[in-house]
Design goal:
By secondary structure, the protein is mainly alpha-helical. The chain has two domains: 106 residues, RNA polymerase sigma factor, region 2, helix turn helix motif (Rna Polymerase Sigma Factor, Chain: A), CATH 1.10.1740; 80 residues, Arc Repressor Mutant, subunit A (Orthogonal Bundle), CATH 1.10.10. 64% of the residues lie in helices and 3% in strands. The termini are far apart.
Length: 193
């Protein structure tokens, strides 16, 4: 049984009612995996969906699906990629449902309000306007391009890793990144992107 903590993101997306040690892969439990990758998963789905509540739901669903299908995980591959693939698929599913319903849509400014990973306050002040503009432009991209941009640049995966996560060829991902950058340049009105 899995229970959720939706009141706060930090401190754990989901809590396992039975001991997580029941699913030990090597010396790492599933609870350790959640703790290690919850920010990456949440960040990816938030950037794809642009809505904090929907992103929290998608992240929770991601870890629930991963927990249920842990036996299908190939331990020779990075678990982060497996989780991100589940997360992207879940975000797409939720995004499609939201598009049909349009009842719980949130402003795209929620995606812009993500805290920066910039280490110093001085750098944050200098880069804030540029980053906010880029995040807003990324949030406006079609889902096909937004997925590859989020995984490549925000999650810092290589093109081959993005291709693996999305189940596409590296050349397809490369073309999608090229087109996404063109759209971003156009949206930002600059050739420096």
């Amino acid at each position: 049984m899995v229970t959720f903590s939706s009141s706060e993101f930090r401190g754990g997306l989901l809590r396992l009612a039975r001991p997580a040690s029941a699913i030990v892969r090597g010396a790492m439990t599933f609870e350790d995996v959640v703790r290690e990758h919850e920010e990456a998963v949440y960040g990816a789905v938030l950037r794809i969906l642009g809505d904090r509540d929907a992103a929290l739901d998608a992240a929770n669903q991601t870890f629930m699906k991963a927990y249920r299908s842990i036996d299908s995980y190939d331990p020779t591959r990075p678990i982060k990629h497996w989780l991100l693939r589940i997360a992207v698929n879940e975000a797409i599913t939720i995004g499609r449902a939201r598009t049909r319903e349009r009842a719980r849509s949130a402003p795209d400014t929620d995606a812009v309000a993500l805290p920066s990973r910039t280490p110093t306050p001085e750098a944050e002040v200098l880069d804030r306007e540029s980053r906010d503009g880029i995040r807003a432009a990324v949030a406006q991209l079609p889902a096909l391009y937004r997925e590859v941009v989020v995984l490549r640049y925000f999650n810092e995966l290589s093109v081959d890793e993005v291709a693996s996560v999305l189940g596409r060829s590296s050349s397809t991902v490369g073309v999608q990144l090229l087109r996404a950058r063109q759209l971003l340049r156009k949206a930002l009105g600059t050739a420096g992107v």
